[in-house]
Design a protein that fits this description.
Strand order of the largest sheet: 2-1-14-13-11-10-9-8
Radius of gyration: 18 Å
Order of helices and strands: HHEEHEEEEEHEEEEHEHEE
Distance between the termini: 36 Å
Shape: globular
Number of domains: 1
Length: about 210
Amino acid sequence: MNQLSRGFLRFTAALAVAAFALLPSVLLAQNSSKTDQWIHVRVENKENGGETVRVNVPIDMAVKVLPAIKHDNLHDGKVRMNCAHLNDVDLRAMLDAVRTARDGEYVTVQSNENDVRVAKNAGYLYIHVTDKNHRKSTDNKDAAAKPVHESKVEVKVPMKVVDALFSSGKDELDIVAALRALSSNGDTELVSVKDSENTVRVWIDSKNVTD
């Protein structure tokens, strides 16, 4: 995998971390009031007897609670990133270039290990990553590696939310600012992760329950 591919993979992971940073707020609040927008997280384990976890958090509650949480890299409503430059890729410079560019498909990487697609359209940033696991065939030494299973990550984020995430100081993601930007957006599918063991979905809408 080349350096650019690794940079986008890590950026995708950073956005996922930003979404899951909301989870601790559920532990700090028992009651919630009716709100316009809710952020939902659903995790399904595919194994026999696997669990399904559903989290529903009003965005306005998360905005109030998150600044009070200080745990690991989360503090004052911000997530600390230990590496703003990932494999010689400057994320801020990259995002600024994407923000000011016209809509289009900017990056397409296809390899035996990963497929990566980065595009912008109608005010949304799209990042699709497919991680392929392969094994060699035991029947024929010359046979090509065959995929065992694939892990897919799909991220769709309004550009105004991306801007808000990176509006804080160096090496930080401003989760509260991103939530405020999300609250003014309509129903949106944010993150989808699928692999052989789990499926994860993160989205926002006006419902107070998950699908």
